[in-house]
Design a protein that fits this description.
Cofactor (chain A): [2Fe-2S] cluster; FAD; [4Fe-4S] cluster; siroheme
Distance between the termini of chain B: 16 Å
Helix content of chain B: under 10%
Shape of chain B: globular
Number of strands of chain B: 12
CATH topology of the largest domain in chain A: Sulfite Reductase Hemoprotein, domain 1
CATH class of the largest domain in chain A: Alpha Beta
Order of helices and strands of chain B: EEEEEEEEEEEE
Strand order of the largest sheet of chain B: 2-3-4-10
Largest sheet of chain A: 5 strands, parallel
Helix content of chain A: 25-40%
Distance between the termini of chain A: 63 Å
Pfam families (chain A): Fer2_BFD, NIR_SIR, NIR_SIR_ferr, Pyr_redox_2, Rubredoxin_C
Strand order of the largest sheet of chain A: 3-2-1-7-19
Pathway (chain A): Nitrogen metabolism; nitrate reduction (assimilation)
Number of domains of chain A: 5
Strand content of chain B: over 45%
Largest interface: A-B, 48 and 45 residues
Radius of gyration of chain A: 33 Å
GO molecular function (chain A): nitrite reductase (NADH) activity
Mean pLDDT of chain A: 90
Radius of gyration of chain B: 14 Å
Largest sheet of chain B: 4 strands, antiparallel
Oligomer: heterodimer
Structural class of chain B: mainly beta
Bound molecules: siroheme, flavin-adenine dinucleotide, iron/sulfur cluster, FE2/S2 (inorganic) cluster
Number of helices of chain A: 24
Mean pLDDT of chain B: 89
CATH architecture of the largest domain in chain A: 2-Layer Sandwich
InterPro entries (chain A): BFD-like_2Fe2S-bd_dom, BFD-like_2Fe2S-bd_dom_sf, FAD/NAD-bd_sf, FAD/NAD-binding_dom, FAD/NAD-linked_Rdtase_dimer_sf, NasD-like, NiRdtase/SiRdtase_haem-b_fer, Nit/Sulf_reduc_fer-like_dom_sf
Number of helices of chain B: 0
Structural class of chain A: alpha/beta
Chain lengths: 839, 115
């Protein structure tokens, strides 16, 4: 006896959070919770996922046994209907009566239903509870056209749900002149509308609905401008209305537009009654987001325990993903001249709009809007919230975002310790760093377990990741890039382990060194390591299914599901007879032909069924696989060199062929390319290759780690005036060093960029043998070279492998009839991607 | 009211036509169905062959694997992943894929396209 009782009315997100917060502080109270819904508290923010995930199980905020374990009495499906404040007792619908010391109202809100004639027709739904979603799901089966009244955050969420339910056309009807009127401006709305339109959502703005059409069932909406739209399912999402009906009956003070009035300690007009979440009206404001609700739960729990904490408003910044489109709004998104200076960029092509509002002195960021690309949201929000100085050219903050959540000029070290990183759970930078330093968390998952950061809306996870890396680096800790959930090793560690244990198949590797059943990340990675280690035929039993599609079918997959055929043409040199064979094969199998940027010929558009016969014919004419599909040597380009060219110093073609034939088939972390030029005029563009060789008066200059692609980088000189054998010796060492130590999918240029000591270090390792590895690397490379065999030759001669090249196993001779080509300049081309699904 | 119809099994292929820990494509009643034999887990799954992302007839050529305990398939084009048991999309907002019941008897695989 003598135990004090807190009655919590409402088992929604905030009511549940209140219980958690209180239990974390004390166990002197007995908690009794009443919920009106028939299931325990769940994640309303991710309500729409209910259609996608395995039902409500993924959404629950606690385990089934949580309430019991914490000695909480939970009454579901039993709302409180009366409170006797004089006797201090509550009564539920099903007649449970309990006395209380404190009450916490967490009754949330309900959808506001505008009084439009016909709104009670069949087929009109709300969007707030699991039950609402069940009704919608059931009805949607027979619906073809949908509409949502309300173009705010929740309305768009509801519209997305209709799209997920495969409703063919959905219209969003908004009274204001733009979408999400409380979060974004007109230009941002226009960008968002365009994006949503391409995903099948039609936005009708500036529309006031006058009537819901249809007999008994909804058939459409009529608007005040005499237009109308058809719809046989309608969701109302025109705003929220706090659930204050019980509070009114009890006589608690409420606002005239609804909401239970609370002070900064979350106390209502009755000192033993508190209100938190969406039913609470603080400073004339209802906070319709979960983060402020959680903060209120913290304040109420503290106040009940006599701690001094008060609520002082809350940041309403939000970031969300609507049908794959990022939308964020932070700080004061609308403030403009003369109170602020605004900068905006708009990229109609990519569907990006960004706006930053800068203080008039140009020193601080006040707020902004991001549509289409919002990876810097966290850092920008921190900049506003912590009143951090911004760089001299703030417009730079709008670019360079892809790489990390840390834009130019704003570093994590300038962020103050008390910066709030996870606003849902109230976790600061200091707490996250502490989790890393004191509690040994080494990744975002660990930090989530320790601090709960990132367990709410999840928006802060990129920032948490950056902070973990940053803190670990500061600690001088080695950051391990582990592969995926199935392997707790870096690529390099796995390479060594596989070698020591002599593992030869994917399953052996997984069984010995990993856990679970593999995935599309570790399978190709392990396959590539197996190939680099043993250079065995990559389609050996069991290993075929662990190859990326291109490796598995020894060809690059194209739009439509056909493949390309690229025979090796070493150095780009080819005899006329072989050219004729290519022409004949291409004609026979109706393939598109093109000279590639790698000095060879690509034949596109081969059906999977035809690949073996095509290759059989090519092989018979002396061709072999060009490995255009593998993370392997691509081409060694050559210029014509001293055999014809008046400037040529050496025979660059012969040397290119020799090199291409040496390293063909060798698998590496990424593809690698080379070229040999006969003089410094550099017609073969050797300095843009992973390794490039240029003839000099005295021998060859060897350049390494160049790259074309999206971030071109010139190769650097590794050694000069060396003879052919030394050149090959250095290349063997260089390539083995790269193969053994580079991260997956890292080209040599990026590998070098990350290497401490850069080219000087690399030269020391390769030329001066500073690691003492030269001999064993040269041996390893020679073993790979000796093990080479043309994969296509093996494939066409092995009936087991060959029979895999069919589209239908139960109709092997039939081709996929969905593959479509179009005509262009007398050849065929792949038809464009199919339009997105509409059922 | 809807009536409950009885599962009608279609003979798909022989077990030896399938690929261990991989997929094959079948033509069944003019539909393309991807059939996966997840040998590591001793499980069979059948789904539509079309990837909803760019509507390519390709899922049978994807890689299977697991996410936690969930069996999944990754499309070879852009590596979108889908749960093999429920069909839900595990990456991004693509819509779910259809899944079909599978049974194996006497060395033959059967798939139920409607039930
Ligand atoms: C066919 C070709 C274009 C052409 O018509 O000329 C081509 C076509 C493709 N390139 Fe390339 N690249 C081709 C020369 C190049 C070149 C030029 C060169 O090699 O001299 C470059 C820049 C040089 C470089 O790599 O440093 C080039 C940089 C890329 C990149 C970017 C690599 C990077 O480091 O950033 C990719 C993407 C990747 O590999 O991840 C790529 C990827 C691709 C893929 C494989 C895309 C894919 O996965 O489907 C294309 C498929 C070809 C196919 O189906 O057969 N391709 N690609 C060229 C084939 C050369 C060959 O004979 O093998
Ligand atoms: C589709 C959707 C998407 C959202 N997306 C976001 C988002 O991205 N970010 C964000 O911050 N917020 C979002 N929200 C808002 C967020 O869900 C709410 O802010 C949050 O749920 C509020 O919690 P609450 O506990 O105050 O109310 P609720 O979660 O609504 O819980 C109140 C509970 O009390 C019950 N109740 C009412 N009266 C009684 C009574 N008399 N007796 C017993 N029980 C009673 C109700 O049935 C309900 O279960 C979204 C909301 C929806 C619907
Ligand atoms: S540049 Fe791009 S589009 Fe052109 S072939 Fe290379 S990858 Fe394909
Ligand atoms: S087509 Fe399947 S992921 Fe793009």
């Amino acid at each position: 006896m003598g135990e004090k009782i807190i009655v919590v009315i409402g088992n929604g997100m905030v009511g549940h959070k209140f219980c958690e917060k209180l239990l974390a502080k004390t166990d002197v109270f007995k908690l009794i919770v009443f919920g009106e819904e028939s299931i325990r508290a769940y994640d309303r923010v991710h309500l729409t996922d209910y259609f996608k995930k395995s039902g409500v199980n993924d959404l629950y905020l606690s385990d089934l046994t949580w309430y019991h374990e914490n000695n909480i009495d939970l009454h579901l499906n039993d709302p409180i209907i009366a409170i006797d404040t004089a006797q201090k007792s509550v009564q539920s619908k099903h007649g449970v009566r309990v006395s209380y010391d404190f009450i916490v109202f967490a009754t949330g809100s309900a959808a506001f239903v505008p009084p439009i004639p016909g709104i009670d027709k069949e087929g009109v739904f709300l969007y707030r509870t699991i039950e609402d979603l069940d009704h919608i799901k059931e009805y949607a089966v027979h619906a073809r056209k949908g509409a949502v009244i309300g173009g705010g955050l929740l309305g768009l969420e509801a519209a997305k749900a209709l799209v997920d339910l495969q409703i063919k056309e959905t219209a969003v009807v908004e009274f204001a002149a733009r979408l999400m009127p409380r979060q974004i401006d007109d230009a941002a709305s226009a960008t968002l509308q365009n994006k949503l339109h391409s995903l099948g959502l039609n936005c009708l703005l500036h529309k006031s609905t006058t009537q819901i059409l249809g007999d008994t069932k909804v058939a459409g909406l009529a608007f005040s401008d005499e237009t109308s739209v058809e719809a046989d399912i309608l969701i109302i999402s025109a705003g929220i209305k706090p659930r204050d009906e019980l509070a009114k009956v009890v006589g608690l003070a409420t606002g005239h537009r609804g909401g239970i009035v609370v002070d900064e300690n979350m106390r209502t007009s009755d000192p033993s009654i508190f209100a938190v979440g969406e039913c609470a009206l603080y400073n004339e404001m209802i906070y319709g987001l979960v983060a402020p609700g959680y903060e209120m739960a913290e304040i109420a729990a503290s106040t009940i325990l006599g701690e001094q904490k008060s609520f002082c408003g809350f940041d309403m910044s939000t970031k969300l993903k609507l049908m794959g489109v990022d939308v964020a709004s932070f700080g004061d998104p609308f403030i403009c001249e003369p109170d602020a200076r605004t900068i905006h960029i708009e990229d109609k092509n990519k569907g990006i709009y960004k706006r930053l509002n800068i203080s008039s002195d140009g020193k601080r960021l006040l707020g902004g809007i991001l549509v289409g690309e919002a990876s810097s949201y966290n850092m920008l929000l921190q900049t506003v919230n912590n009143n951090m100085p911004i760089p001299e050219h703030p417009e730079l903050l709008l670019f360079h975002e892809k790489a990390s959540s840390q834009p130019v000029g704003l570093g994590l070290d300038t962020l103050p310790d008390n910066a709030l990183i996870c606003s849902c759970e109230g976790v600061t930078k200091a707490q996250i760093c502490d989790a890393v330093i004191q509690q040994g968390c080494e990744n975002a998952d660990g930090v989530k377990k320790c601090t709960k950061a990132g367990s709410g809306c999840g928006g802060c996870i990129p920032m948490v990741k950056d902070l973990v890396t940053y803190t670990m680096k500061q600690q001088g800790k080695y950051i391990r890039n582990t592969i995926c959930e199935h392997f707790d090793y870096s690529r390099q560690e796995l390479f060594d382990l596989m070698k020591i244990h002599e593992l030869h198949t994917y399953d052996e590797v997984l069984d010995n060194l990993g856990k679970g059943h593999g995935c599309e990340v570790c399978k190709p990675l392990v396959s590539s390591l197996l190939a680099s280690l043993w250079n065995e035929m990559i389609l050996g039993k069991g290993n075929d299914v662990a190859q990326d599609s291109n490796d598995r079918f020894l060809a690059n997959i194209q739009r439509g599901g056909t493949y390309s055929v690229v025979p090796r043409i070493p150095g780009g040199e080819i005899r006329p007879e072989k050219l004729i064979v290519i022409g004949e094969v291409a004609k026979k199998y109706n393939l598109y032909t093109k000279i590639t940027g790698g000095q060879r010929i690509d034949m596109f558009g081969a059906h999977v069924n035809d690949l073996p016969s095509i290759w059989e014919e090519l092989i018979a004419a002396g061709f072999e696989s060009g490995h255009a599909y593998g993370k392997a040597l691509r081409t060694v380009k050559s210029c014509v060199g001293s055999t014809w060219c008046r400037f040529g110093l050496h025979d660059s073609v012969s040397f290119a062929i020799k090199i291409e034939e040496r390293y063909r088939g060798v698998r590496a972390p990424h593809k690698f390319k080379s070229a040999v030029s006969g003089c410094i005029r550099e017609c073969a563009e050797a300095q843009s290759k992973d390794f490039g060789i240029i003839a000099t008066e005295k021998g060859w200059n060897l350049y390494v780690c160049g790259n074309g692609g999206s971030k071109p980088q010139h190769a650097l000189l590794l050694a000069s005036d060396i003879d052919s054998n030394t050149c090959i010796q250095y290349l063997d060492r260089f390539l083995m060093f790269y193969i053994r130590t580079a991260d997956p999918l890292t080209r040599t240029a990026t590998w070098l960029n990350k290497m401490d000591g850069g080219i000087d270090y690399l030269r020391n390792v390769v030329v001066n043998d500073s690691l003492g590895m030269a001999e064993s690397w040269e041996k390893e490379m020679q073993a790979l070279v000796d093990a080479y065999q043309c994969e296509w030759k093996v494939a066409v001669n092995n009936p087991d492998i060959r029979k895999r090249f069919v589209h239908f196993v139960n109709a092997p001779s039939e081709k996929d009839e969905t593959v479509k080509f179009e005509e262009m300049r007398g050849q065929k081309k792949a038809a464009d991607w199919n339009a997105p699904i509409t059922y | 009211m809807e009536t409950l119809s009885i599962t009608s099994w279609k003979l798909a292929c022989r077990v030896e036509d399938t690929i261990e820990n991989g997929g094959v494509c079948l033509k069944l009643e003019d539909q393309q169905v991807a059939l996966f034999y997840f040998k590591r887990r001793n499980e069979w799954y059948a789904t539509q062959n079309e990837c909803p992302h760019k509507r390519q007839m390709i899922l049978s050529r994807g890689m299977i694997g697991s996410l936690g305990d969930k069996p999944k398939i990754a499309c070879p084009f852009h590596k979108k992943t889908f749960a093999l048991d429920t069909g839900e999309c595990l990456s991004g907002d693509e819509c779910a894929i259809k899944t079909y019941p599978v049974k194996v008897e006497d060395g033959f695989v059967y798939i139920a396209l409607q039930n």
